[in-house]
Amino acid sequence: VLAMALLTLSLPLTSSQEYVPSEEWSAEGGHSVLMEQYTATWCDVCASVDVWMPDFTSANGNRVARVAVHDTFDDPLGTPITAHRAQYHSTALAAPSFWFDGSLLFGGAPDKASLHRALLSAEGQRVDDTRMVLVVRALTASQISISVELSDIATPDSTQVSLFALRASASIGPEQATNGITEHHDVAFAYAETSIGGDAKWSYPDASWDDATGAGQSVEPGGVVVLTRTLELPEGVATEELRIVAVHESSSAEGSEPSTMGAVAVSLGDQGDSDGVGLLVPLSLILVLSTLAITARSRR
């Protein structure tokens, strides 16, 4: 019996311990607050804030979806996304700047208490959250599809879904890190806007997203709207290091603050580990105990 128990517990766990990449990642919600941060690798004040950003977002979980857009001057992480999103805000950019659901947080470099208050304020001002389901699928090693399902839409007219593709962690060389920070988080590298009617609008990099005719849109029973876009990943960027943020917001004119009606995010590295190890060991113990019980009865 002891030999059988040892044999059972020594069953190879290799297959269940191996990392198996997920082909699909999903998140459901819409209640998250979009926190856009304008920052720069040359900004010393930004460095004092950026270092504790991962702790802030982790502590608040799904309450906040952070997007970091970097300056395009002398910053290797800057993209045209920064200028495009800046046109929606009525104030001039000053690093660092934070917008919660489009509302600017004033006061230079904030502390954690200020950000927590701004988050609470944004949550209190949100009315009629759009219910959102975000599904990301790996089509190939370098291409993903992003589908957003929207329901309970209070104001469908003149609204859009904005998709941010982020690098959960992006590293730069010490020679590029003017402010001394070499690792940055939630860095936007791709972005696309799609009207609620399914028409593709502004995107970057434009060649990496499907064209206007490829922006899928369908209306399901009950008024549920599903929008789908595909994104070709740049060389050297793997799916497991990505974070996708989907936002339902008003199609704001230049200089008017966007109105966020829903936001949801999913990290593509969260669901890759197999749960097989956690199940195999308890099942093995149950099998051993059952064997011992049967053997004990047979000896009576």
Automatic annotation (TrEMBL):
Designated name of the protein: Thioredoxin domain-containing protein
